[in-house]
Write a structure and sequence with these properties.
With 202 residues, the protein is an alpha+beta fold. It has a single domain, classed as Aminopeptidase, CATH 3.40.630.30. The chain is built from six helices and eight strands; from the N terminus they run βααβαββαβαββαβ. The longest helix has 15 residues.
Length: 202
């Protein structure tokens, strides 16, 4: 990636690309209608995307083909969505609802960037603690969450509808001034790996 990644709030026009990434990432993806509700009607929801310049028509990394399938009309958009996330903020609880990165862009710190963005926004909006569910088999995601001080506090049997897999319930608390300082330090370290512009947490 030669241009900075833009981290910004999700908009309605992003939904076709977000749904395409969702389908690449999860066996039970959300529908377009669900994303529309989240960004237009759910006042507790904080939805974020990562945006980069649109891939060239001949791109071979998979994003170009996906992007071309989604373009309608004579003037294609100049940017492409490469990742997204969602968080519900209710009575001090920041519940990470979804997070995904396009397969062609994984392993580059972008999932971590999405998590950082949602945690920072939650802190800015008065979040007191954060929770999430994760598959018991998804050790890579669990390692990322532990890096940001989430700990396993419970187990939800048969949580995932596609195969009946259990979920770990993970939690980090409190999201206080000391945590804010540690998060800022991790964000500075992440900037050494990912060139990004933050239009989401302010």
């Amino acid at each position: 990636m030669t241009s900075p990644v833009i981290m910004r709030p999700m908009r309605a026009e992003d939904i076709p690309q977000v749904v395409a990434i969702d389908r690449e990432s999860f066996p039970t993806p959300w529908s377009s209608r669900t994303y529309t509700f989240e960004i237009e009607n759910n006042t507790t929801s904080q939805m974020v995307v990562l945006e980069v310049p649109a891939p060239p028509p001949g791109g071979s990394n998979g994003l170009g083909a996906m992007f071309r399938r989604l373009v309608h009309g004579d003037t294609p958009p100049e940017t492409a969505i490469i990742g997204y996330g969602g968080c519900w903020l209710i009575a001090g609880e920041a519940h990470i609802s979804t997070i995904a990165v396009h397969p062609a862009y994984r392993g580059k710190g972008l999932g971590e960037l999405l998590l950082v963005g949602m945690l920072q926004r939650a802190l800015n909006l008065g979040g007191e603690y954060s929770v999430l569910e994760v598959r018991v088999s998804n050790e890579q995601a669990q390692a990322l969450y532990r890096k940001y001080e989430y700990a396993i506090v419970g187990r939800r049997p048969g949580y995932y509808r596609d195969n009946g897999e259990d979920a770990y319930l993970m939690e980090v608390r409190p999201l206080d001034a000391a945590y804010q300082q540690r998060l800022a330090e991790r964000t500075r370290a992440l900037r050494q790996r990912v060139d990004f512009v933050d239009q989401f947490t302010g």
